[in-house]
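Example record for the data management plan.
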Amino acid sequence: MSKKNECMHYQKCLENETISIPPQFRPGCTEESDLDDIDTSRHTDRHCHEAEKRTLWPFVWQMVARVEELDDPGDYIVYDIVDQSFIVVKTEDNEIKAFYNSCLHRGRSLVENNGCVTEFKCPYHGFSWRLNGKLKSIPSAWDFKQFAARPKSETCLPEVLVDSWGGFIFINMDLNAIPLKAYLGVLPEHFNRWPIEKSKKVLHVSKKIPANWKTTQEAFMESLHARGIHQQMLPYIGDEYTQYDTYGENISRAMTVIGVSSPALAEKLSEEKIAESYLGNNLDKKTEGLLRSTTDARKTLITIKRERISKKLNIDMSDFLDSEIIDEYMYCVFPNFSPWKGLDSTMIYRFRPNGDDHRSCIMDVIFLSCSTSDDKYERPKTTCLGLDEPFSNAKELGGLATVLDQDVDNLVYVDKGLRAAKKKRMLLSGYQEKIIKNFHSTLDKYLKVSE
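Corresponding structural encoding:
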């Protein structure tokens, strides 16, 4: 199947739309990357991890939290990336600031877990700083005259850049970095139709995975692996019909058709069976009646989902495309942040090294939900899973846990195979792994600085 035909299959679904199709639903960049294979050392060797520490993580915008998590002055979260740690806090003036999580006296981490404080007081000797980062008190001040005599700029907690988009808070260690808005490119414009700034975080599962962060992230950058790893999804997911788009260095997108069977499925299913496979046990009498009479699974599923979302949000859904109602859109923001399109709920993936270990990583799965309640927001507790704990231990994930565990089980063997590879190269497809190519093309530019 040619690249053009693959791309056009998703576009063919749009031919049945009854409202005007916004331009962002059309194919993005159609240029081919000349990056066909990747050196496996990027995923296996320590030297690449060390290069990323020097020339990647200190220079990219990283999503660290949601604004609703910092609701009151003193609310803070801790964000760790490789060997760096940061405090992101709401100050008394309702500003959001981010500081290096390190005492200026003897270097101890000031805080270890998320929380709410009136000051940052080092547990080691008692130096303290105000929420805005200014020095508050010095223990045994008579013996630290040289410290107190320094310029105030040297006694404040060092800051990093902070900005936000869509209710997400980002930081950048590079004080000369390009503005976040420029870094995100088309992303804000595309998400104007799905205003996630109005949503709030309701679920967060953080799992350690025994594979490099890039190996893990790449498992979610294409749909083709469904035929090998998620065969239970093949009745209702058009994996090979996914449209892949790139928008410059930092933004990529995958748009996967739902409600049609994979071309890899040998058995031709009835339309009723396709719809049943998608809905699972999420049926009521009205839905069961629609399924029995359906002659087009995709159209029936769109009708069901449109009604359910409209009822939940109490809004008119007639201005949304059928594709927006049912299809899956995943955006990839370089290097490690993946927000999905969402109407009533939005899923987020984030990937990062597990501390300073290049052979394992942390995958965060976050859900946002539109809320019509005026009740005070309560930050959800993060469920943390170790290397040997499956996603299925996080009951709040429901059926998604099964899918994620299939990915993790596979990643163990991907990591093993990459280390055993004789040729030390990964060969990528021309179109369906386009997002992975774009990711590595951008990563090249950061790592070449290290070289």
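Summary line stored alongside the record: The longest helix spans residues 400-420.
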